[in-house]
């Protein structure tokens, strides 16, 4: 206990005090990002029109790799299938990681934009349209913008940049693929890591928070086993439909009666498959769902509760134990408090306090958490992409709703959204590099 206390005091004493980013550096970033905007706009519209789905980002990766080489980065391709790692060493100083994702989604774009995607791809044997409806094209463009800004300002900082372009974020697999391929063994391990995500906020604004900013995600797959028979003779069979129905209702009491009501936690059953017609009792019913949470304790409680209610629902009917599979789909991203406070000061200074605000965690899940969980102080923040008037109108009762990420109508306004994102990322990185 004593030792822990001493260690805590020591680590407090060792916490570096961060100097404020000098004003000329800030205006330098703004001037450079504004100056290179036509380049970013062209890249954005090209990426938007040519999206690729998870682990098929070959054209995208090739394009990013070529641009990063032109900027002077040492680029390694095919890290974690289609991922790329671009390293730039510039003297002794901290190593900073900046992540972008590259994948689009298998869905049709309905924005009607002149540069809308008509691309198609085959996934799991079936062909579908592909769209950048999560804004990963905004992230890639601002990632390039930040890289170029930092290269142009090379004389003003010291350290190592590790810019990574990750595949397959949408299927929560790309970060793992890169780590399994030796990301932090073959390349310098970062002291800090940053990633940003476009969000339906007003453009020109950034949002962030301490602690959890995305959720733990676990999927549910349960097969309730019964004994099929004639619908007129339930006594001669064992009905898995009633067992599944009871489970779907009762499992919600794990959320409402067992979890701390102040903590976030969701259990959703999104699919029930069983039976063919009304007069046959089927042999089995499959139930699928998702579990979301922020804290590890809530996560453990929900997982245990779902399993217990599934077993109990079957036991109540005298049925065999169900086949319960709870598969982890990703951990929550937990931002570093020290890094967020330090970056918050710079964001408020650069964009104005009203345009750089704390926001609640998102209930979605993100595999940037895998990099954070390697013990790297990290910050995941959000940048706005919509006209502030449209955002205000959407908040008004009866106002026109704006399309959220993953909507076929998701249509970020490129300028100034990309500028703000590139500026914010450049400032966040400059702020932790040596000088
Ligand atoms: Zn997404
Ligand atoms: Zn995304």
UniProtKB/TrEMBL annotation:
| Annotated SUPFAM superfamilies | Bacterial exopeptidase dimerisation domain, Zn-dependent exopeptidases
Q: Which residues form the Peptidase M20 dimerisation domain?
A: 216-312
* Top-level taxon of origin: Bacteria
Instruction: Recite the UniProt keywords alphabetically.
Output: Hydrolase, Signal
* Gene3D superfamilies according to UniProt: 3.30.70.360, Zn peptidases (3.40.630.10)
- Give start-end of the signal peptide: 1-19
User: Under what name is this protein listed?
Assistant: Amidohydrolase
């Amino acid at each position: 206990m004593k030792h822990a206390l001493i260690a805590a005091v020591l680590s407090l004493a060792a916490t570096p005090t961060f100097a404020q980013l000098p004003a000329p550096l800030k205006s330098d970033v703004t001037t450079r990002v504004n100056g290179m905007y036509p380049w970013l706009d062209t890249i954005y519209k090209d990426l938007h029109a040519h999206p690729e789905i998870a682990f098929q980002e070959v054209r995208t990766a090739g394009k990013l790799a070529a641009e990063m080489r032109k900027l002077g980065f040492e680029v390694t391709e095919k890290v974690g299938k289609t991922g790329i790692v671009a390293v730039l060493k510039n003297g002794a100083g901290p190593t900073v990681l900046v992540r972008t994702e590259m994948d689009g989604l298998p869905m049709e774009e309905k924005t009607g934009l002149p540069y809308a995607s008509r691309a198609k791809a085959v996934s799991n044997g079936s062909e579908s349209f592909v769209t950048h409806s999560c804004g990963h094209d905004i992230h890639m463009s601002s990632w390039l913008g930040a890289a170029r800004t930092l290269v142009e300002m090379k004389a003003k900082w010291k350290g190592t940049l590790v810019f990574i372009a990750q595949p397959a974020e949408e299927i929560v697999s790309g970060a793992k693929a890169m780590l399994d391929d030796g990301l932090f063994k073959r390349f310098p391990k970062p002291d800090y890591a940053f990633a940003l995500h476009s969000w339906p906020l007003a453009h020109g604004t950034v949002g962030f928070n301490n602690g959890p900013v995305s959720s733990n995600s676990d999927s549910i797959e349960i097969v309730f086993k019964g004994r099929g028979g004639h619908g007129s003779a339930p006594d001669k069979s064992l009905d898995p439909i009633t067992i599944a129905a009871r489970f779907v209702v009762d499992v919600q009491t794990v959320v409402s009666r067992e979890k701390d009501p102040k903590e976030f936690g969701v259990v959703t059953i999104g699919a029930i498959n069983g039976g063919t017609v009304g007069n046959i009792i089927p042999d089995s019913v499959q139930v699928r769902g998702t579990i979301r949470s922020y804290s590890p304790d809530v996560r453990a409680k929900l997982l245990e509760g779902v399993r217990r209610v599934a077993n109990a629902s079957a036991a109540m009917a005298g049925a065999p134990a169900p086949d319960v599979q709870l598969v982890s789909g990703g951990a929550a991203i937990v931002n570093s408090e020290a890094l967020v406070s330090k970056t918050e000061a710079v964001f408020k200074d650069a964009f104005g306090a009203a345009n750089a605000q704390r926001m609640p965690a998102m209930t979605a899940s993100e595999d940037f958490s895998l990099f954070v969980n390697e013990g790297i102080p990290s910050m995941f923040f959000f940048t706005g992409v919509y006209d502030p008037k449209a955002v205000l109108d959407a908040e008004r009762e009866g106002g026109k709703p704006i399309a959220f990420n993953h909507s076929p109508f998701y249509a970020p306004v490129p300028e100034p959204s990309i500028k703000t994102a590139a500026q914010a990322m450049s400032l966040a990185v400059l702020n932790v590099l040596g000088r």
